[in-house]
Write a structure and sequence with these properties.
171 residues, alpha+beta, 5-stranded mixed β-sheet, two-stranded antiparallel sheet, 7 strands, 24% helix
Amino acid sequence: MTEVEPFPLIRPVEVASIRSDGLALHVEADEGERAELAKLFGIPAIAQIEADFSLTKKGPRARVTGEIWGRFTQTCVLTLEPFDSDFRETVDLPFDEDPAKALELRPEEEAPDPIVNGIIDLGAIAAEFTALALDPYPRKPGAVFEFKDKNDVEIVKPSAFGALATLKKQD
């Protein structure tokens, strides 16, 4: 079995630590984590990733809700220039100790993510939603596609007056 490389942004929360009235947490990626994530996502830079999460628990199930926001730099597909983009993503994820069993009991609901070894990683959630916010074809505001090939020749249909002018030149 191959070893899985740890994700650059890790904020583990023990599900057992979630109180009956819930748990609120703030996550902020530091400079090193942002640099590693930018490298992983193949973008020039990430200036900010922050998130506010609310965790609730009921039996073997837990729910993470909240909001993730930040700023990253992408490269324009038209101009190849870097530009900054702000993002904001809403999170509402169910978790369960046994997702397969939970899906059997409630097939009409969204399949929950697994609670692994009693832990939910809020850092991984923040990083995944940041990746989802990336535009696969980023375009710098105001960038316009204008392709002109030097080999393209404009074809002009001759007009009737042009044909008459050619006859006049032959005389």
